[in-house]
Amino acid sequence: MKMSNSATMGASKRRLSSRGLGGVLREQRAKLYIIRRCVVMLLCWHD
């Protein structure tokens, strides 16, 4: 888990220089939205 985390951190630093802070913030918000939707679906799942 730590290896993938450091790899994503390195990638996000590269993206920061190429797309700027706005693009990185938008991407993080999109990831949080997807994670939140998955959690809600898992919590509300009924068999």
Automatic annotation (TrEMBL):
A UniProt-annotated Pfam family: DVL
Keyword Transmembrane helix included in the entry's annotation: yes
Entry keyword Glycoprotein: no
A GO term from the CC aspect: plasma membrane
Membrane topology note: Single-pass membrane protein
Biological processes, Gene Ontology terms: negative regulation of cell population proliferation; shoot system development
Keyword annotations of the record: Cell membrane, Developmental protein, Membrane, Transmembrane, Transmembrane helix
Compartments it resides in: Cell membrane
Family: Belongs to the DVL/RTFL small polypeptides family.
Protein name: ROTUNDIFOLIA like 8
Gene name, Swiss-Prot/TrEMBL: LOC107946448
